[in-house]
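Re: [ENG-882] Designed sequences occasionally contain unexpected residues at chain ends

Forwarding the minimal case from QA. Structure tokens:
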């Protein structure tokens, strides 16, 4: 299998504990190149721990993971050159303008023509008109789009978005969703962690539900919906929503149901 054919991210048997607390209990999944993969789960499910391991910020106790063909444990430097990570809060310098933030990052990465790189990204994320304004004047959605734009400097093939719309209003969330969709259209592989069911439903090519340290289901939205029978309301067939699937699998009392497999692979 060539590098281009292999999954962008391959995870097998990841386990991680903090003293007596076992956070990951054997996590397995692959992410296809150029796709959006959503890791869905409640607070404390282990989503951020997975991202930290994949981005070389944390070492797994056992298991293996490869990102863009590189082993996260033995080829950490190569992994870091292949990825970008955007956390839950926008890491922009509010004293600088949007354009100055982008130019600064391009210069720190020793790239040629930092001004052109900044202008291209401002246009790509619909921030050209606001490029000369201080980032402190930006709305939440604008700030998050700038943050994502900054993370793309250097054209990393894989980007991790750890709960990118936390704290944003509905309009700002839509703006960020559009930016994420554009990433995939241009060939970037996106691993998105979220606790918002509608976000996973709206964006992801595949969705994995992480619960109590394990992936309890992994599939496309259509495959996940097929796990539950449609409900009939007033003689009209009602297809299950992702929320129905999530609550059925995870349970309202926090006890996971028996793991399901959405596909045969």
């Amino acid at each position: 299998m060539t590098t281009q054919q292999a999954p962008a991210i391959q995870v097998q048997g990841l386990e991680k504990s903090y003293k007596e607390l076992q956070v990951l209990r054997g996590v397995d999944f692959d992410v296809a190149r150029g796709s959006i993969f959503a890791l869905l789960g409640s607070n404390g499910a282990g989503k951020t721990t997975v991202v930290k391991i994949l981005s070389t910020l944390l070492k797994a106790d056992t298991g293996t993971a490869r990102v863009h063909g590189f082993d996260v444990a033995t080829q950490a430097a190569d992994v870091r050159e292949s990825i970008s990570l955007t956390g839950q809060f926008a890491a922009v310098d509010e004293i600088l303008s949007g354009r100055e933030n982008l130019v600064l990052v391009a210069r720190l990465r020793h790239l040629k023509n930092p001004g052109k790189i900044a202008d291209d990204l401002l246009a790509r994320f619909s921030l050209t008109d606001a490029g000369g304004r201080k980032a402190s004047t930006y709305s939440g959605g604008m700030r998050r789009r700038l943050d994502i734009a900054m993370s793309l400097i250097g054209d990393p093939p894989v980007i991790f978005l750890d709960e990118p719309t936390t704290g944003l209003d509905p309009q700002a969330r839509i703006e960020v969703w559009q930016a994420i969709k554009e990433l995939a259209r241009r060939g970037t592989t996106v691993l998105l962690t979220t606790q918002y069911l509608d976000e996973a439903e709206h964006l992801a090519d595949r969705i994995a539900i992480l619960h109590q340290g394990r992936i309890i289901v992994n599939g496309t939205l259509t495959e996940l919906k097929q796990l539950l029978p449609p409900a009939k309301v007033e003689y009209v067939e009602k297809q299950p929503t992702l929320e129905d699937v999530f609550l059925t699998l995870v349970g309202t009392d926090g006890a996971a149901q028996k793991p399901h497999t959405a596909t045969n692979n």
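QA comment: On inspection the terminal residues look reasonable. The chain has a mean pLDDT of 88. Proposing we downgrade this to a documentation issue.
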